[in-house]
Write a structure and sequence with these properties.
about 475 residues; alpha/beta; five-stranded parallel beta sheet; 14 helices
Amino acid sequence: MAHSVVIIGSGFGGIGMAIRLREAGVHDVVILERADGLGGTWRDNTYPGAACDVPSHLYSFSFERKTDWTRRFPPQPEILDYLWHCARKYGLVGRIRFGTEVTEARFDEDAALWRVSTTTGELDARVLVSACGQLNRPALPPIEGRESFAGASFHSSRWDHGTDLRGKRVAVVGTGASAIQIVPEIATEAAELRLFQRSAPYVIEKPDRPYRAWEKAVLRTVPGAYALSRARIYAMFESRALGFVKYPKLMGLMEKGFRKHLEEQVADPALRDRLVPGYRMGCKRILLSDTYYPALNRPNVRLVTDPIERVTPSGVATAGEHHDVDVIVYATGFRSTDFLSPMKIVGRDGRELNEAWRDGAQAHLGITVSGFPNLFLLYGPYTNLGHNSIIYMLESQFRYVLGCVEALRRHGLDWIDVKPDVQDAFTREMRERMRTTVWEAGCQSWYMTEDGRVVNNWPGFTFAYRNATRRPDPRHFTARRATAR
């Protein structure tokens, strides 16, 4: 018996989609999760200092409000607890098959079903939803000798909590979003910390603090208080889109704030010079921290900007110097443009998704892929943001997918498949609009494919995306009615 909907992944996308489906009366929903617990990136990233850089009230579902967040910016354990709360409240835990990794999904056109192969068996689905996200496959750098290191080494998203860093010589490779949270935490216990920087990030003030008891009471009891807080934060963040996607020169205003922040926190002019990025602000992800720069001032912390030549059994070698270390932490990000890899996805006429995406990932509205009927992506290509909450984008996608599922049910359809010319037109529009964004201002970032095209980000306002995904347009799809079998 085929399931109505099978969802791959149990992070914000998978949990939120399942909730919305069940609320719409689609109860035969199964979630496949390769790990032994839900949570996606918030399950995987347990490194010291892990937290979100989007305020709590905006980094949560609009339909499941939480008024008792402890801080303005939520820490990892609290976000994970929130996701578990949602899964339990809406009866999803029993619908999740943990320890089940999808190896292949193949569309059977005659039966109008997705045949899904997993590490624990086979199952069929009328509708397949990928909620794998963009930040779940660690990227380890191709450094010569990396495997030869004799000490402990691990990626930041696979933190080895059994390794005691107290009194150790620690190397942190990378200066991205994870590194700026990790460094301040471990610098207080490591004997020495060498931070290897390839390019400096823009780090601005993080207005974080605990919520006071009276504030939480107001949010809990005063009608409209929580909604007002959420709306205020949304409007503040959304205004940044002008600089990111319309008028990149406006980023100069934010850059002044960055320089002020840097000068206030780093007194040494030589160190400060090495912390100034050589690209336009916003081209790479802007980071928030009040503790990162002070950590670099510590006497046991050294910023290394010479390129890494190789890793040796005893440390890290740069030009003319060898850095003896006991532990290496790779805070080197994720393979964000691979999307559904390493799963094998086969659509109509035996077409493989990897082949369809050989020139870069494409999906109409980041959700539907031509030639792959009844397959829907959450957080797919062209849906990431540089300025606001991805939860807002996900909720837009939930509504669009629900509209497609309802169309299948209401019109008695076997499947729907987005037309290739519709997908191509959307991709052309995205690439054209991307040219004026700050993300194509001359830097290399995790938003880009190897050939330098930005395929992750939405080049517009989030409310424009919500309007575009308000309901599926029947003219965009081909369909087969059930009577046609």
